[in-house]
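By way of example, we now present a protein record of this kind:
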Amino acid sequence: MVPLPQILAELIMALGAALLFANVYALVRPRLRGGREPAPQVQARGRVVINMLIGLVVMVWGFASFVAGGSA
């Protein structure tokens, strides 16, 4: 059976990664769209970058908890 702290560390790491990569996708999505019409710009670029940083911190925190909990 998997211990609860390990599951929580994995969940925190996955949520942080989801927040990070979803915001990266939202930031680069207008550039990835092809076509002749101009791509719409991201309205709140600062908020997207802040959410990316929060996601990165949460993902690193979850990874550190996962690694530290694995030695017990």
About this structure: The chain has one domain: 4-32+41-70. Residues 4-32 form the longest helix (29 residues).
